Structure to design on (497 residues):
C-alpha cells in the first residue's frame, strides 16, 4: 500500500453521521391533529374578538380558514375542541358527542373546561364542524336532525354576530335535504327565513337563502316561480363574491329561458368574473361556461377558442366545442350528429332545450356564409347546401334572415333566387361606437365595485376629531400664554414710568 493510499481515510473513519429517525404513522397523525387543533383555537380567539369588536371580518376569516381545515378534521379533533370549550354537562356538548359516538377514535383528553359559559358563536361554530363532518360521511339523517336543531338555536339567540355562521348552517341544511331528494319539504321554511332575514337586514343570510330558494326552484324546473322571486326581492349589495356569482348565474339562466340573451350573457360574464379562479370551484366554472357558450351562440356570436383550451374546462367543454364548430360553419348535419351523440350530456346539464334553439342559428349562419360567398344563388341550391326539406322552407328562412338583419339581400320570387347587396363599411355604422360604449361601461362598473369593496378602520373619523380638538386646545393655551406675557410686559412698563 502506498503512502497516498494510507493518507486517504474512509468515510466511516471520520465522525459518525447522526441517523435521522423516521417518525411513525401515529406520531405524524398526532402532530397533524395538534396543528389542526391549534388552528381551531386560533379560530376561537378570532370569534371572541369578533364579538368584542363587533367586526364581521374576523368571522369571515374564520369561515375562510375552516374551508381549508375541513379536509383535515377528524372526530378526535372535534371531540378535543368540544372538551376544550364546553363546560361539563352542557346540553349542546352532550348532543354533539352523541353524533360522534359511533366513530372510531383513539384516546381523547377529557380535561373539562372550568368556565361555566360558552359564547353562542363558538358553540354554533363547533356545531358547524360536526355538521360538515356528518355531511362528508354521508350520514344525511343525522345531518338533517342536527341542522334543524341548530336553526332553532340560531332563532333563539337572535344575535347579529351569528349571521355568517347561520348562513353556512342554512346552506348545509339545504344541501342535506337535496342529497336525500327532499328539497320540496324545506321550501316554506326557507321562504319564511328569507323574509325574516330581509326584515332584520341580515345580508349574509338574505343572499344565501335567496340562492338556496332559486336552486330549489331550478331543481324542480319551476322557472316562473324563480322569476317571480327575483322580481319581488333585492339581492344585497354587501354580499360576498361567492353568493353574488351564484345569483348572477341563476339570473343568467332565467333570462336565457326568457329569450333575453343579451341580459343573460351580461349576468353570466359577471358570474365568471366574480367566481374564484381555482381548482376547488372547477364545477361552478364549468357550469357557467357551458351556459355562457350556448347563450353566446344564440346571440349570433362565436366564443373564443381559448375558452376551450383552459385546463379546468377542456374536458368538460368537448361536447360544446363540437356544437360551436357546427354553428360556426353552419353545418346542419354536423349539428344533428353532435346532438345525437352528446344528447345525454346536454340533458344532464339541463341545456338540451336551449341547444335545440340553436338549429335556427345554424341555418342563419349557413345563409350568412352563402350570402358572403355568392352574389346571386338560387333557392334550390340553398336548399341543397343547408339540407332543408323544400324550397319553400328555404325561402321562408331567407326572408326571416333578411328581416332580422342577418344578411343584406333581396329575393326574386318569380325566378327563385336571392341577390346579395354590396358589403357596407362597418365603420360607417354604430357598431364600433356600441363596442366602445360596452367596454367603457364595464370599466366604470369595475371601478365602482372596487370603491365599494374598500374597507376603512371603524370609527376612524373620531381619531381625526380628537386630534383636531387637541390642536385647537393647544392654540387656545398658546393664545392665553401670549396674552399673559403681554400683560406682564405692560406691568413692567408701568413700573418703570
Amino acid at each position: 500500500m502506498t503512502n497516498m493510499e494510507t493518507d486517504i481515510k474512509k468515510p466511516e473513519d471520520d465522525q459518525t453521521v447522526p441517523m435521522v429517525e423516521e417518525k411513525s404513522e401515529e406520531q405524524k397523525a398526532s402532530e397533524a391533529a395538534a396543528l389542526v387543533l391549534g388552528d381551531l383555537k386560533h379560530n376561537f380567539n378570532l370569534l371572541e374578538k369578533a364579538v368584542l369588536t363587533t367586526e364581521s371580518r374576523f368571522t369571515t376569516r374564520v369561515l375562510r380558514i375552516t374551508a381549508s381545515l375541513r379536509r383535515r378534521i377528524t372526530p378526535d379533533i372535534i371531540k378535543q375542541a368540544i372538551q376544550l370549550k364546553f363546560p361539563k354537562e352542557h346540553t349542546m356538548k352532550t348532543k354533539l358527542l352523541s353524533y360522534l359516538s359511533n366513530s372510531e377514535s383513539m384516546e381523547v383528553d377529557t380535561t373539562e373546561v372550568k368556565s361555566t359559559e360558552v359564547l353562542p358563536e363558538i358553540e354554533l361554530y363547533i356545531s358547524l364542524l360536526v355538521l360538515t363532518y356528518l355531511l362528508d360521511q354521508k350520514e344525511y339523517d343525522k345531518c338533517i336532525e342536527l341542522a334543524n336543531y341548530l336553526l332553532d338555536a340560531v332563532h333563539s339567540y337572535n344575535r347579529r354576530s351569528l349571521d355568517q355562521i347561520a348562513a353556512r348552517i342554512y346552506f348545509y341544511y339545504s344541501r342535506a335535504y337535496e342529497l336525500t331528494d327532499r328539497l320540496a319539504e324545506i321550501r316554506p321554511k326557507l321562504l319564511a327565513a328569507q323574509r325574516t332575514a330581509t326584515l332584520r337586514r341580515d345580508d349574509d343570510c338574505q343572499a344565501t337563502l335567496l340562492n338556496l330558494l332559486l336552486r330549489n326552484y331550478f331543481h324542480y324546473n319551476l322557472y316562473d316561480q324563480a322569476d317571480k322571486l327575483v322580481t319581488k326581492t333585492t339581492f344585497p349589495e354587501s354580499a360576498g363574491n361567492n353568493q353574488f356569482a351564484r345569483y348572477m348565474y341563476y339570473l343568467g339562466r332565467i333570462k336565457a329561458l326568457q329569450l333575453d340573451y343579451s341580459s343573460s350573457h351580461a349576468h353570466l360574464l359577471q358570474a365568471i368574473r366574480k367566481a374564484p379562479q381555482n381548482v376547488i370551484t372547477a364545477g361552478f366554472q364549468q357550469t357557467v361556461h357551458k351556459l355562457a357558450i350556448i347563450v353566446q351562440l344564440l346571440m349570433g356570436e362565436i366564443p373564443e377558442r381559448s375558452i376551450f383550451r383552459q385546463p379546468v374546462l377542456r374536458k368538460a367543454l368537448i361536447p360544446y366545442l363540437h356544437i360551436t364548430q357546427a354553428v360556426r360553419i353552419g353545418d346542419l348535419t354536423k349539428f344533428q350528429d353532435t346532438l345525437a351523440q352528446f344528447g345525454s350530456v346536454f340533458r344532464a346539464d339541463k341545456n338540451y332545450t336551449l341547444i335545440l334553439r340553436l338549429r335556427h342559428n345554424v341555418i342563419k349562419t349557413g345563409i350568412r356564409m352563402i350570402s358572403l360567398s355568392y352574389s346571386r344563388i338560387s333557392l334550390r341550391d340553398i336548399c341543397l347546401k343547408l339540407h332543408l326539406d323544400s324550397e319553400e322552407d328555404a325561402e321562408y328562412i331567407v326572408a326571416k334572415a333578411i328581416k332580422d338583419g342577418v344578411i343584406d339581400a333581396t329575393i326574386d320570387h318569380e325566378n327563385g333566387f336571392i341577390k346579395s347587396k354590396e358589403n357596407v363599411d362597418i365603420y360607417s355604422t354604430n357598431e364600433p361606437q356600441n363596442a366602445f360604449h360596452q367596454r367603457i361601461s364595464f370599466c366604470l362598473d369595475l371601478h365602482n365595485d372596487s370603491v365599494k369593496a374598500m374597507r376603512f378602520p371603524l370609527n376612524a373619523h373620531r381619531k381625526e376629531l380628537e386630534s383636531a380638538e387637541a390642536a385647537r386646545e393647544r392654540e387656545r393655551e398658546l393664545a392665553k400664554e401670549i396674552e399673559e406675557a403681554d400683560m406682564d410686559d405692560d406691568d413692567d412698563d408701568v413700573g418703570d414710568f
User: Anything to note?
Assistant: The chain is about 70% helix and 0% strand. Residues 189 and 195 are 10 Å apart (CA to CA). Residues 31-102+116-182 form one domain. The beta strands are 376-378, 409-412, 417-420.
